User: Which sequence fits this backbone?
């Protein structure tokens, strides 16, 4: 587990370096958020110059995530969510979407970014009938995540595991699959897995990402749609399967972004 990081209001944890761009803050910048520094904006603009479609990709992630969580809370009847790699708060965070459907929903957020920790209070504004908690932990320690999340979630009942834009930070595909398997192993039958990540389906994006990785401390690795689908091995995929994010159950009246290089899906653990 990462060390506990606490900060008084207005203070900045020592681990936050505003002079080094960070993926979560760059992502926040692309989505129109306010939690970023000059270094993040410079890096974000450089990436966008190399691949102008990155902002549409980022937006497609958020739209897919919102639709997926609504489906989980409504049609699937899930009332417990484990959101690993949640990132910085924006609009329609997991607890907000889920608790609109079911005010009693319980959510555990997990991230190892000290800036996310600094903004944890924004994530903890649960509906009074439900509950929201934040864990400062690393994706690569699934046993520790499950152990700590058990203080809030009942793992004898179904849980929705949310892995949105986080598995790409694990360079080795086999390691990433192993992490998913270990997290799922701790969940009861009837649990669901939601995954969405950027894909290597565009040569321009792939080139821009490789250039970013060569100069960045926090790297992200694009995978093929087939590799994204492999995370759901042993699960029953919810229709329409693993598809480009805008194609996963688009809702009437929703303004959809163009075709993007980001795939997502939801699967059910039957046993």
Assistant:
């Amino acid at each position: 587990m990462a060390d506990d990081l606490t900060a008084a209001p207005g203070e900045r944890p020592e681990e936050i370096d505003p002079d080094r761009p960070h993926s979560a803050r760059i992502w926040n910048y692309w989505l129109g958020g306010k939690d970023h520094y000059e270094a993040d904006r410079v890096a974000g603009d450089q990436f966008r110059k190399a691949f102008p479609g990155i902002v549409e990709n980022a937006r497609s992630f958020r739209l897919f995530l919102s639709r997926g969580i609504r489906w989980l809370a409504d049609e699937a009847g899930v009332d417990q969510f484990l959101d690993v790699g949640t990132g910085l708060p924006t609009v329609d965070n997991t607890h907000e979407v889920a608790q609109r459907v079911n005010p009693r929903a319980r959510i555990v957020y997990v991230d190892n970014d000290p800036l996310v920790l600094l903004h944890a209070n924004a994530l903890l504004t649960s509906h009074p009938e439900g509950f929201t908690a934040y864990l400062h932990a690393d994706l690569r320690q699934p046993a520790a995540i499950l152990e700590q999340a058990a203080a809030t979630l009942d793992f004898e009942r179904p849980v929705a595991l949310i892995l949105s834009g986080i598995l790409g930070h694990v360079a080795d595909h086999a390691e990433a699959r192993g992490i998913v398997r270990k997290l799922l192993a701790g969940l009861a039958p009837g649990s669901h897995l939601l995954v969405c990540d950027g894909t290597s389906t565009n040569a321009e994006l792939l080139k821009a990402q490789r250039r970013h990785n060569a100069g960045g401390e926090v790297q992200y690795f694009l995978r093929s749609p087939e590799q994204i689908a492999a995370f759901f091995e042993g699960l029953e995929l919810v229709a329409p399967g693993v598809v480009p994010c805008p194609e996963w159950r688009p809702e009437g009246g929703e303004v959809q972004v163009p075709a993007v290089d980001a795939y997502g899906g939801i699967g059910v653990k039957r046993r």
